[in-house]
């Protein structure tokens, strides 16, 4: 049976942990720009409105907090890897995200999104190594799985897991467009929010 959509409501944006509301256990979504993060959060919530909130100019570079109706919060972190972003902004991004990931007491799980077709980029690998080194709990979610042809799927799963230095079973494969793996990921999110 399909699980119920996450009931999310946009609460607040900020750049620093102390500006963010505290609403109990929190999960965060992070990934490079264009990985499919907004589409995925929308699919989990069955709400198009949410992506619009996070994609509003000016908010894409902020930490966006959504409350979950049954408790806890979902956080949309700004995408990394804009090729044209000047160095000093990349520096701001790092200090904002690192500050959040290291200091946010409510944070129970970080979902790191990696494009199924492209595989982990050097920035994705850097992010995973950093999370591992700092012992921040995280789960890799492979997005846009519909883009990988079925003949290549097994090999792609193996290569992507290897690229992330993980076992195949550790990775959640999803497609927001084709509604693949969304129920499973939603259950996983809820299990963390209700801890
Ligand atoms: P974000 O920048 O990470 O928030 O990415 P978006 O959610 O805006 O998606 C970036 C692009 O990927 C858009 O053109 C989406 O239509 C496309 N996209 C997102 N999810 C999927 C998916 O599951 N399958 C396919 N084929 N395309 C997707």
List the helices and strands and how they pair.
Blueprint: E1 8-14, E2 26-31, H1 37-45, H2 48-55, E3 63-68, E4 73-76, H3 87-103, E5 107-115, H4 122-133, E6 138-143, H5 150-163, E7 172-173, H6 182-193
Parallel strand pairs: 2-4, 2-5, 5-6, 6-7
Antiparallel strand pairs: 1-3, 3-4
List of distinct ligands in this structure: guanosine-5'-diphosphate
Number of strands: 7
Largest sheet: 7 strands, mixed
CATH architecture: 3-Layer(aba) Sandwich
Notes on the structure:
With 195 residues, the protein is α/β, with parallel strands linked by helices. The chain has one domain (8-193): Rossmann fold. The chain has 6 helices and 7 strands. It has a 7-stranded mixed beta sheet with strand order 1-3-4-2-5-6-7, with helices on both faces. α1 packs antiparallel against α2. The longest helix has 17 residues, at 87-103. The chain starts with 7 loop residues before the first strand and ends with a helix. The mean pLDDT is 90. Guanosine-5'-diphosphate is lined by residues 31, 33-39, 79, 143-144, 146-147, 175-177.
């Amino acid at each position: 049976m399909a699980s119920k959509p996450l009931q999310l409501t946009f609460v607040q944006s900020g750049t620093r942990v102390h500006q963010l509301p505290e609403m109990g256990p929190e999960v965060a979504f992070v990934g490079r720009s264009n990985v499919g993060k907004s589409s995925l959060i929308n699919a989990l919530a069955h709400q198009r409105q949410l992506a619009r909130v996070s994609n509003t100019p000016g908010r894409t570079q902020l930490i966006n907090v959504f409350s979950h109706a049954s408790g806890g919060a979902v956080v949309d972190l700004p995408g990394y890897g804009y090729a044209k972003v000047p160095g000093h902004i990349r520096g701001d991004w790092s200090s904002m995200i690192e500050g959040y990931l290291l200091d946010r007491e409510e944070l129970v799980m970080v979902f790191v999104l990696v494009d199924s077709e492209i595989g982990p980029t050097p920035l994705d690998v850097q992010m995973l190594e950093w999370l591992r080194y700092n012992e921040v709990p995280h789960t890799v979610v492979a997005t846009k799985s519909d883009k990988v042809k079925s003949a290549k799927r097994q090999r792609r799963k193996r290569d992507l897991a290897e690229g992330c230095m993980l076992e195949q079973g550790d990775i959640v494969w999803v497609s927001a467009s084709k509604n693949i793996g969304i129920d499973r990921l939603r259950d996983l999110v809820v299990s963390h929010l209700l801890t």
